[in-house]
Amino acid sequence: MRAFMNMPISDRRAAPCRFCGRSPAPGEHRLPGPAGPVCADCVEAGLALVRDGRARPSLGGTPLLAAERGSDLACEFCGRRERRTFFGFRRPLARMIGGPGNAVICADCLDRAGDVLNRALRQR
């Protein structure tokens, strides 16, 4: 993760998607992440995956899977494994796993990523 953040910005912009491994197309919007960017197609597939729990292939051909409930894998973006309610109860947090390095992103971060990408696309 640290190696990615130490790269020059021009190299980070050309880095492949963390989940599908595809390089960015000219003008493609992607969400920057601590260990590498996430493309809009993987965000869309991830939102569907956490909604229905069904595994699906990414556009780059790598499998995108739902994390098992109770697994110890933390989201690379926010570091959470579970959601805490207002009263302090702990609830499972749906997460997507995929890509060459088994990247992990939670449902909340996917939702925020979708919002950010939607705003970027509207400003074109």
Concise description?
The protein has 124 residues and is of the alpha+beta class.
Features of this protein?
124 residues, alpha+beta, four-stranded antiparallel beta sheet, two-stranded antiparallel sheet, 4 helices, 8 strands, 31% helix, globular
Question: Can you give a write-up of this model?
Answer:
- 31% of the residues lie in helices and 19% in strands.
- A hairpin with a 6-residue loop joins β1 (30-31) and β2 (38-39).
- Strands 3-4-7-8 form a four-stranded antiparallel sheet. Strands 1-2 form a two-stranded antiparallel sheet. It has a two-stranded antiparallel sheet with strand order 5-6.
- α3 (40-52) crosses α4 (107-122).
- With 124 residues, the chain is an alpha+beta fold.
